[in-house]
Write a structure and sequence with these properties.
329 residues, alpha/beta, 7-stranded mixed beta sheet, 9 helices, binds propionyl Coenzyme A, binds nicotinamide-adenine-dinucleotide
Length: 329
């Protein structure tokens, strides 16, 4: 492993969008850590696409290997928790943002960011879940902690064809929830029905901004933010539970206090960068009762060379499901 291939962003002298290069680098080029991992799979998340485009304050310094999640084998470790060949997953902790990430054949990270895969889980399925599956699982975990059950009523999932949302639909329907998939893509109905959605609705018209509307949802999982999240709050049932983790459609929240004080609606914030004990708890469930079926339908496997094109497509809302990078291709 003297040298290997990586996708790195470099600061551009002329543009806010960084220069993206697939290049040969050495271990010494990577951020520091006591564990070296041979990356088997990494994935494309919205945050990687934002980093690629230089949008938002995602990457703190350059050059930077992108990739906020990955699975692979321990190559070397000076920490006794890990031995060569162990199967592991890494996501969060600033990986791919202020520490080199998973869009490379090798990654080097501190040992306390690394998690063994749940026993029996394979590297491809684990990466197909990745940060996205963890986010969907964490949302479901907190919603159920707040009393959501399938008997309470329908659950809405917005940005429905996206990575987190596709996994959320498969997880929810597998657990017996009735799901309404809300999408702006007219050609995605068959895909969303295949994942188990009972109904597919097009993004509503937000022009009439009302504090409350007819109550529909016992719960909602929102990738979009902005007007969409405000609309979900205004259409939630009494004691409905809404999880917010996304900003794909905007970061403002033009709402009122009425859903909270007249219907007792619960708005839960979801941050996938959780402490390790919570990660381990949710990952165990992702390998048991939360394990979504249909991962093969949700994932598309590409090579590192194809990744810049996939990032462009994600920014234009032309991707669906999860995009997985196989580092051996
Ligand atoms: C997988 C996870 C995801 O996909 S999350 C979605 C992708 N993330 C984004 O789009 C957010 C990108 N970030 C931003 O646009 C900016 O950092 C935002 C949030 C607007 C804040 O910028 P600005 O108003 O300039 O403030 P600032 O950078 O001086 O920070 C203010 C205080 O907030 C903190 N902060 C910043 N970023 C984070 C973060 N990611 N997590 C937790 N805290 C954060 C800063 O440290 C700062 O606090 P302090 O003053 O240092 O105590
Ligand atoms: N809080 C966290 O820890 C956390 C973790 C993972 C993802 N996220 C966020 O969740 C969101 C989804 O991430 P992903 O990786 O699934 O991305 P994705 O691109 O796969 O999915 C986003 C979906 O939202 C849709 N969308 C975008 N703009 C829209 C709009 N204006 N109206 C309606 N739909 C719109 C897209 O078409 C796509 O289907 C992103 O905002 C991401 O940053 C947050």
């Amino acid at each position: 492993m003297t040298s290997f291939t990586a996708l790195r962003l470099h600061q551009s002298r002329t543009h806010t969008q960084p220069d993206c290069r697939i290049e040969t680098i050495n271990l010494d080029d990577l951020s520091k850590g006591d564990v070296v991992i041979r990356v088997a799979y990494s994935s494309l998340n919205y945050k990687d696409a934002l980093a690629y485009a230089g949008r938002g304050k995602i990457v703190s310094d350059y050059p930077r290997v992108t990739g906020i999640d990955f699975t692979g084998y321990i190559e070397t470790s000076s920490n006794e928790m890990f031995k060569p060949g162990d199967k592991v997953i890494v996501h969060g902790f600033g990986v791919g943002v202020n520490h080199d990430g998973g869009h490379a054949q090798y990654a080097r990270v501190p040992a306390n960011w690394v998690m063994h895969l749940p026993h029996g889980m394979d590297l491809l399925d684990a990466c197909s879940l990745g940060a996205a599956g963890y986010t969907a699982g964490l949302a479901l975990h907190w919603m159920e902690q707040c009393g959501l059950t399938p008997q309470k009523g329908e659950v809405a999932v917005t940005g429905a064809s996206g990575g987190v949302a596709s996994l959320a639909i498969a997880m929810l329907t597998h657990r017996g929830y009735r799901v309404c998939a809300i999408t702006s893509k007219t050609d995605m109905a068959d895909y969303l029905n295949d994942l188990g959605a009972e109904r597919v609705e097009l993004t509503p018209d937000f022009t009439e901004n009302r504090p409350l509307r007819s109550a529909q949802w016992a719960g909602a999982i929102d990738s979009v933010g902005g007007d969409m999240l405000a609309w979900l709050l205004s259409t939630a049932q009494a004691e409905g539970v809404i999880t917010a983790f996304g900003n794909a459609g905007g970061f403002q929240l033009p709402t009122t206090v009425y859903p909270f004080i007249l219907r007792g609606v619960k708005l839960l914030g979801i941050n996938a960068n959780s402490p390790m004990p919570l990660r381990q708890q949710v990952w165990q469930r992702l390998h048991s009762d939360y394990l979504p079926p249909r991962l093969q339908t949700i994932r598309r496997v590409i090579s590192l060379t194809d990744l810049p094109r996939a990032m462009e497509a994600m920014l234009c809302r032309k991707t669906h499901g999860r995009t997985i990078i196989d580092m051996t291709l």
